[in-house]
Structure formats: structure tokens, C-alpha cells
Amino acid sequence: MTARYLLKVEAPIGVSAAGIFIGFLLFFTIKKGCLRKKHLKKDVNMMELRRYRFDELKKATDSFSDERLIGSGAFGNVYRGVLGDEKRTVAIKKAHSESNESAEEFKNEIELLSRVKHKNLVGLVGYCSEAKHKILVYEYVSQGCLLEYIVGKERNPLTWQQRVNLAIGSAKGVAHLHGVEPSIIHRDLKPSNILIDDEFEAKISDFGLVKKGPNGDASHVSTQAKGTPGYMDPAYCSSLHLTTSSDVFSFGVILLQLVSSRPALDHTRRQSEYHISNWAKPSIERGMVEDILDVSLQLEPCNNKMMLKMAQLGIRCTAWEPKNRPTIRQVVKELEEALCQVTKSVQRSSYSEESQSFSIDSVLLQRFYVESFEDISIRSASLRCLDVTNSSNNNEEVDEVDGR
């Protein structure tokens, strides 16, 4: 075999080997660059948060005194604190000492929350990670939580407009979590985790159970179902397959509570109506929202069409099969469209020459007869949410109504 022949054979092999080597080199270089960018992005997110010392947060909360305690949960207590150098009021969430959350899990939680910013999500300000201390510092939201307004009744009752606004705002917050890649699943949506700010806007809070979801339509398999009874998706409880529809189920329960101001689980109801969705469903399917309506809404101006729409969405969100539930984005869209239709209907009616109704806060109230000082009967309904109606032959007196 001649040297010239060997050269002809080995030259192409050498070129091919060199090409393969260069290809592998380029592949690993690009992959390394992508990983570096990914870690750099994570580091940038973490750099936007302040790392506090434990003694700073201890001082801000008067040594985590009971007087500063504003909330408590399975994973930790929340305290109102005032940071000395910034004079800023914050909410400081301190994990229980027996919490088994690892340092890596805590770091992942911080990284996860640092990359989601939305006006309807409580903002993460900083954190503390010293020895056994795992503490998160959030923006302080001053007007309490939704639970205090609807079930606890510790505050003034909400008007129907406020209920719709809070429903839309909180749905937008959840939609933002579901919209990132990969999606973020809250896993513990409930009225006590929906805070209300000074402008009466909803802010989703308490991300202790937050979970990074799978991409696309896949599901995440958990080793244990976690959440709050009454708000937990039954499909998730039975299969341990976690998807964004699990949050939708929880949100459906909240919608029904916004309409009725009833607890998610009520031991005073018969067993078949123990859960709020089972209790409300028969009335909502008949279109009789007034049967489940919060009594405070029955005593003041209300729009039962909007309340019925919210309740119908609540029933759909709590469907047993996840595939029969709307997405949270569909919930936002349908709520906004329904509110728009109600607003347009009110505006048209208010300019009608035949209408004998009057408008307060964009809600048309049917005038009611005054039979006597002892007997005032409301023609549209007694203790019911008032419909938008026209009355052409009435020659009645009109009482002043305070529309909030």
C-alpha cells in the first residue's frame, strides 16, 4: 500500500474527525453560555432583593412580639414591622422553628417569587437566611384580607362593585402566575390570602405552598396533597397530579363566597350541601342568585345579573373534572365582559325617556312605593338584589338611597 494511497484515505477521515470535534466544542460552548445566562438572570433577580440581618428584623418587630402579629398559618407567623433605616412598614413572615423546609427549597422559593411582579401580587422586598432562620419580607398591605370582609364580617360589608373589582383583580394576579414559563401554581388560594390595599385593589399573598408547574398542559406529580380543606381541588387530592386548574377550583370557591359570604365548608348544612359549590349549584342552575346572595347585598343597591354571572363562573370553576373548568384567563375575560355589558345597559337605561328609574353609582334602582311609614314594600323584591327595570306607570315617592 503506497504512501500516496494512505494519504488519500486518511485525509478525509482527519477532516471528518476535526469537524466532529469542532461541532462538539461549539455545542458545549453554546450550552455553557445558555446556562451562564440562566444563572446570571437568576442572580440578577436575587440582587434586586435586599438580604436582611436577623437582628434587623427582630428589632423591626419588637422581638417578634404578639402585638406585632398580624397573621398565622401552618408554615409561619406574619408580623408587621418597621425597618429602622428606611422607616418603611413591611410584613415579615417568619417560618416556624420546626419547619422542615431545606435551605435549597427556601432559596428556590425566593428565586421563584423574585421573578414575578404584578400589581395584584404582594411584592417580595427581601429575605433573611441566617442559620436556622428563614424569613421573607413583603410589602405591607394595610386594609386586611378578603376573609375579614365576607366571612369574618370584621369590617364594613362590601358593595357589589367592590366584590366584582376584587374578583377581577385577584384573577389577574393568578393569571400572571399561570402565564409565566414555566407556570407557577399557588396551591393555597383562599380569602385570607387575598389582601386589600389602600385603593381597594386585591393582592395575592402567602406563597408558602407555591409550586413551579410543568410546561404546557402537563401535570406535576406531588408526593402529598397540600392546601386548605374546602379550597383544595378534589382531582388533585385523589390523583396528586397538580395543574393550574387546581388553582382555578380554589378561585371558584372564592367567587361563590364573594356572592354569598358563606364559608367554604359549613357543618350546619346537610351533608350533600356541606361544600359551598354543592349548596349553591341548584339555585344558580335555576338562575335564582337571590337564594344564595349575601344578606348585606339584599339590603342595598345591587345588580343581580353581575352577581349571577360571578356565581355561574364559580360553579364552572369548581367542576369535578378539571377539563370542564375554564382557565383563569377565561375567568378574567368573562368577568370583564359581563361588567362591561352591565355598565352599557345601565348607561342606556339612564338616558331612556320612558324609564322612571334613577341612577346611583351606575346602578339603576327601581323606585319603590311608600305605603306608610310602618309598611314600606319594595315592588321589585323584598330583601332581594334589585334588578335593572323600567316602571312606566308608577307615580310614587322616591326615598333617598345611599349608593356606596
UniProtKB/TrEMBL annotation:
Residues the record lists as binding ATP: 94
Membrane topology label: Single-pass membrane protein; Single-pass type I membrane protein
PROSITE patterns named in the record: PROTEIN_KINASE_ATP, PROTEIN_KINASE_DOM, PROTEIN_KINASE_ST
One matching Pfam family: Pkinase
Start and end residues of each Protein kinase domain: 64-339
Gene3D superfamilies: Phosphorylase Kinase, domain 1, Transferase(Phosphotransferase) domain 1
Keywords: ATP-binding, Glycoprotein, Kinase, Membrane, Nucleotide-binding, Receptor, Serine/threonine-protein kinase, Signal, Transferase, Transmembrane, Transmembrane helix
Regions crossing the membrane: 12-30
PANTHER family per UniProt: PROLINE-RICH RECEPTOR-LIKE PROTEIN KINASE PERK4, PROTEIN KINASE SUPERFAMILY PROTEIN
Protein name (record): non-specific serine/threonine protein kinase
Taxonomic source organism: Dendrobium thyrsiflorum
